[in-house]
Design goal:
The chain has eight helices and 15 strands. By secondary structure, it is of the alpha/beta class. The strands form three sheets. Strands 3, 4, 5, 6, 7, 14 and 15 form a seven-stranded mixed β-sheet that branches.
């Protein structure tokens, strides 16, 4: 059966529809997944509407980071998955999930969809796990953008990894504070506090500040006051996902790290991260980080959803049902 996919135009900032005949697996390690639901991310929107922010990207390229669907084919070197398995997966940078069937290179980018989980929730998961990074162990962490999918995932993973004594502070709109506390945040602040380093330090132990900042939305590019939350003599770590806004100017002595979703697979034990996430969801240890909203149906719904992201979305993940 022919497969439809979308290609972005860097000049018109729109998508064009294309159709190709069925393609064979490109390697013994590859999987073909028939898309059921696509998760939308700000990164996708920025690559469509602001391609100049990504000078190293090549075009034509199929966008789309997150997806969930059914395995149609698996290479002979794939061990965990077989045709018919329901999965969620992390798409490739230049050949992503904005298509009816997408290919994943290597099963480390694939997780088993937990029983009873909806397709929209499954499609909201992949990039949230890969972007939380790896670093020395802090005793206090500030999560900027705590109500985003990455931020709410980070709160849970930090609590699981660092235990009950670590202080986790999150910024978000007040409507999301109760949810973030239920995920493991010690304290929550309104987003306005991001412009005031003293206000950020005020809720930390002894008001001395935090060891690390996890900036889930890349806010420090426009709000450098966020660095005022870091503790003098502390670890002074800052991490943020790749957002396309890379002109970050951190104070001297601050160790910064930009994280892309697939980077986790290169870390020690990282190749099992997606399946580990799937098992934690199955066991109820990890929760779907935020509410899911269906922005549209079919490939035609993707552009509408990306426009919604650019206009601003808070505390929810947009998906498109196929």
């Amino acid at each position: 059966m022919p497969t439809q996919f979308l290609l972005p135009s860097p000049t018109t900032q729109t998508f064009t529809h294309h159709t190709i005949p069925p393609q064979p697996l490109s390697s013994p390690h590859a999987l073909k997944i028939r898309t059921h639901t696509i998760g939308l991310n700000p990164l996708d929107a920025k690559r469509l509407y602001h391609p100049s922010l990504f000078p190293h990207s090549s075009y034509p390229a199929v966008l789309g980071v997150d997806g969930a669907g059914v395995v149609e084919a698996a290479g002979e070197e794939v061990k965990r998955f077989r045709p018919g398995d329901e999965v969620f997966a992390l798409g490739r940078m230049e050949e992503g999930t904005f298509q009816e069937v997408f290919e994943v290179q290597g099963e480390e980018g694939v997780g088993t969809k937990p029983r009873g989980m909806g397709w929209g929730e499954a499609a909201s998961l992949p990039i949230t796990d890969g972007n939380t990074g790896n670093s020395p162990l802090p005793k206090s962490v500030l999560v900027i953008g705590g109500s985003s999918a990455i931020g709410a995932s980070a709160i849970q993973l930090l609590r699981l990894a660092l235990g009950p004594t670590v202080t986790i502070i999150a910024t978000a709109s007040a409507t999301h504070h109760a949810h973030l506390r239920s995920l493991g945040a010690t304290a929550c602040l309104e987003r306005a506090a991001q412009a005031d380093g003293k206000a950020l330090r005020a809720v930390t132990p002894g008001e001395f500040g935090v060891d690390a900042i996890l900036d889930a939305v890349g806010a420090a590019v426009e709000q450098p006051e966020i660095f005022g939350a870091l503790k003098e003599g502390g670890l002074k770590m800052y991490a943020a996902p790749v957002t396309g806004r890379e002109e970050l100017k951190a104070p001297e002595g601050v160790r910064t790290k930009r994280v892309f979703g697939r980077a986790v697979f290169g870390m020690e034990g990282g190749k099992g991260a997606m399946q580990w996430l799937a098992q934690m969801l199955e066991d109820g240890i990890f929760k779907v980080p935020c509410a899911v909203e269906v922005a549209g149906k079919g490939l035609e719904g993707i552009e509408k959803g990306l426009r919604m992201l650019m206009e601003g979305v808070s505390g929810k993940k947009l998906v498109v049902s196929m």
